[in-house]
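Weekly structure sync - notes
Attendees: PM, LS, DV (DV joined late)
Agenda: review two folding runs queued last week.

Item 1: First target. Sequence and structure tokens pasted below for the record.
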Amino acid sequence: MRVLVVEDDHLLSDVVVSGLRSAGFAVDRVESAELGDTALRNEHFDLIVLDIGLPGMTGLEWLRRLRLRPGDESRVPVLMLTARDGLEDRIDGLNLGADDYMVKPFELRELIARSRALIRRTGTITSEVGRFGSLVIDSARRELKFNDHPIELTPREWSILEYLILHANSVVSKDKLLQAISGWDDNLAPNAIEVYVSRLRGKLDHTDVRIRTVRGVGYRIEEPAA
């Protein structure tokens, strides 16, 4: 899952970015709403962590404009992260389209848990521990089991599986998968997705879950019909 952090406090953004990355997210950061706008128009993100007190355009104003746009980018979940703890500030943020609101200082574990919860709302599995076919997926621990037996995945393989399951009813393009598992600081070639998917298929071969190739489009994960 890919997160865009929009925060001008370098010390705080270092903590947020480091914490989210350690939890398995691909994370990019910008320092202003204007730069966030450019990033969101050019690439896909699964969550935005947004400060209110930004230089130039405020986070609230950017959020208002974002929710008025047509297309998928207007529906990206937004977690407001701010020092403003007044009731009216929280109400304003939620009324303008924020999906959640956290006040500084905050616990990093809570930020990670809330981030996962917001992303899950858009997908197939809605709790930290869920089922997909015969697979049991623990998102918090990044653990996968089949018939109570663990399946060992690399961080990249896990990220691809998680993203495919989150979008289980859709065909996911290679480009979108690449964006979902890598940030600007990563150097992944497009054909790396094919390698990771091939390895993942091998590890799922003895289960009832299959990753299908839709030629010329991308991949779709399938579980057996009920």
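Item 2: Second target, run right after the first with the same settings.
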Amino acid sequence: MALAVENPSETVQLRHHYNAPREQVFRAWTDPEALGQWFGPQSHTCKVEKLDVREGGDYQLRLIPTDENEDSDCGGNASADSICAGTFVSIQAPEKLVMTFGWIQNGADISDTLISVRFVEADGGTDLVLTHERLPTEEMRQAHAGGWQSSLECLETFLRI
């Protein structure tokens, strides 16, 4: 299922290459134990509160600030836990995940945003393409781009272990 980007001006897209097989990178997004070890920006740790990986299944992740946490520009209190949640729209293992995304505690006031993550075999590893759509302001796009970039770097560290 190909999803077209409705409004490119409301979209953040990031690419990152991992020296790991596509199945391993996909599993890092869909296994609760793995996801809890890397998800979120470097300034936070993650507690997976719910991860029902099936089309129509829900997820909920608690991001807990670390002592090294810097000021947050994601719309919330940088010293308080944040909770993001959504529903899996499409799962094509190990090629693509599509899910809704929103902050339900201590984050930007957004709802019904959409994330798609593609996993492409490339150069002996995996190219990951993350697209976050329906971010209504430039400030939100920049904040989420920074958070996602940091999170994808955390994933790289996790995959090296």
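Discussion on item 2: The helical segments are 22-30, 32-38, 138-160.
Action: LS to circulate a short write-up before next sync.
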